[in-house]
Amino acid sequence: MGARPRYGWTSSLVTAVLAVAGLVFAGPAPANPTAGMEVGDDNSVCTAGFAVQDRFGDYYLLTSGHCDAGDNAEWTDAGAAPLGRIFASENNGDDRDAAIIRLAPGTPPPSGGVDGRYRIRDVLRPDQIQVGMPFCKVGSQTGETCGVVTEVAGNVVVTNLFSIEGDSGSPGFVTNPDGTVSAAGILMGGPEDDDDTTYFMMVEPLLREWRLQILK
Question: InterPro entries this protein is in (predicted)?
Answer without folding.
Answer: Peptidase_S1_PA, Peptidase_S1_PA_chymotrypsin
